[in-house]
Amino acid sequence: KKKHRRRPSKKKRRWKPYSKLSWEEKQQFDERQSLRASRLRAEMFAKGQPVAPYNTTQFLMEDHDQEEPDLKTGLYPRRAAAKDEDGGSDGMGGDGSEFLQRDFSETYERYHVESLQNMSKQELVKEYLELEKCLSRMEEENNRLRMESKKAGGEAADPARVQALEREVDRLRAENLRLLRERELPRQEK
Questions:
Q1: In whole angstroms, how far apart are CA 146 and each of 61, 139, 156, 164?
Q2: Angle 109-113-117 (CA atoms, 0-180°, nearest 5)?
Q3: pLDDT band (50, 70, 90) for residue 109
Q4: What CA–CA distance (Å, rounded) separates 128 from 179?
Q5: Residue 156 to residues 27, 148, 159, 169: CA-CA distances in angstroms?
Q6: At how many degrees (to 10) do helices 159-189 and 121-151 cross?
Q7: Which keywords are on file for this protein (predicted)?
């Protein structure tokens, strides 16, 4: 009986990582792979199974529509807006950031409306009361800042902060009105 030797056969070629192949070897390897993939796709098609294209980078780039806008320009809308206010131009268009901001606002609004619709009457009342407290706090802070600005001749209070607080107060008032309407809807339906 011959003893089995655990050596690889000489016919078997050694495997080499793709990164260590020479340029010619890489071209041959890629060609073999594309032929193999096309043969497999033909077999799958013959069997009646769904066939996907060979996913090479070149195929993906050809499939990529160059006419689409680059939506990555506005990933950081606050930073881009701050640069625009400073007068700095980094070459990015404002359209992409406006689109993303609008899209985010719409999505957030839809989510918020759904969450309010899923709340019970008690939860809605609780949310309304919390918003009322927040609104009164903002109004008090706004009044305090106005009084400080009047005392100091308008130099102590930061006008941008006052405007931001006024916008927040307006937003909270609108939220309160919306919650009041939503609270009244179930009563009117009954």
A1: 58, 10, 10, 13
A2: 170
A3: confident
A4: 6
A5: 71, 7, 9, 21
A6: 160
A7: Coiled coil, Nucleus, Repressor, Transcription, Transcription regulation
